[in-house]
Amino acid sequence: MDHATPAIYFQGLEKRFGDLSVLNGVNGQINRGEVVSIIGPSGCGKSTLLRCFNHLESINGGQLLVDGMDLARPNLTRKQLLQLRAKVGMVFQQFNLFPHMTVLDNLTLAPRKVLGQAAKESSRMARFYLDKVGLGAKGEAYPTNSRGAKAAGGDRPSPLHEAGHHVV
Ligand SMILES: Nc1ncnc2c1ncn2[C@@H]1O[C@H](COP(=O)(O)OP(=O)(O)O)[C@@H](O)[C@H]1O
Ligand SMILES: [Mg+2]
After folding, report:
1. Is the pLDDT of residue 152 over 50?
2. pLDDT for 20-73, tens place per residue?
3. N or C: which end of the chain has fewer CB within 10 A?
4. Which atom from ligand 1 is nearest to the alpha carbon of 18?
5. What is the set of domains in the chain, with CATH numbers?
6. Which one has a higher pLDDT value, 162 or 119?
7. What's the pLDDT tens digit per position in 56-67?
């Protein structure tokens, strides 16, 4: 994408669930490298807006361009959606880590499968981010409070969720 193209642009964005109008003509632009917080009361549509950005929700009206891709088009192909989702990550409020995989495997799965990163490179990146958030010792632990977490000396109830936050 060229630097003049906004990362995300939306104009008159509308999203309804049946009779419930959740997004009613929302406008905004987020430029490349910009960090933006969306704040508002519970139920006002923050998550719905985010879900529209990677087409987890289809929109009912208005314009929505993500990295120049027109998400208001009705017939997005599977290939286009995969291209979009390789670039747009979303961390859910529930963490959804795979319980049978170590933290490191959870963190490297998407970079390896979606971006085609080599195992060594994705492990290096994952360890870098784990270290950054003080979880460097947790790479081989499992996301639950089971054997792995204990073996790694985990003393917080769900320390690995924080790791998921930074990489998923
Ligand atoms: N899939 C859905 N079907 C029906 N209603 C939904 C759905 N998703 C969200 N809503 C409703 O849309 C509104 C906005 O939800 P949401 O975007 O999750 O709000 P927020 O993230 O700001 O708390 C709420 O009233 C919620 O109940
Ligand atoms: Mg929400």
Report:
1. no
2. 999 999 999 999 999 999 999 999 999 999 999 999 999 999 999 999 999 998
3. N
4. 4
5. 8-87 (3.40.50.300), 103-167 (no CATH)
6. 119
7. 999 999 999 999
pTM of the model: 0.78
Q: Which of 20, 26, 42, 53 to mutate to test the pocket of ligand 1 (most atoms within 8 A of CB)?
A: 20
Residue type, 101: M
- Return the ligand number nearest the Cα of 48: 1
Cβ neighbours of 103 (radius 10 Å): 25
Q: Whose CA is nearest to atom 20 of ligand 1?
A: 43
Q: Answer yes or no: is the C-beta of 82 below 6 A from any ligand 1 atom.
A: no
CA distances from 167 to 12, 24, 35, 145 (A): 31, 32, 16, 20
In angstroms, the Cα distances linking 166 to 21, 62, 109 are 32, 31, 14
Compute, in angstroms, the gap from residue 41 CA to the centroid of ligand 2. Answer: 9
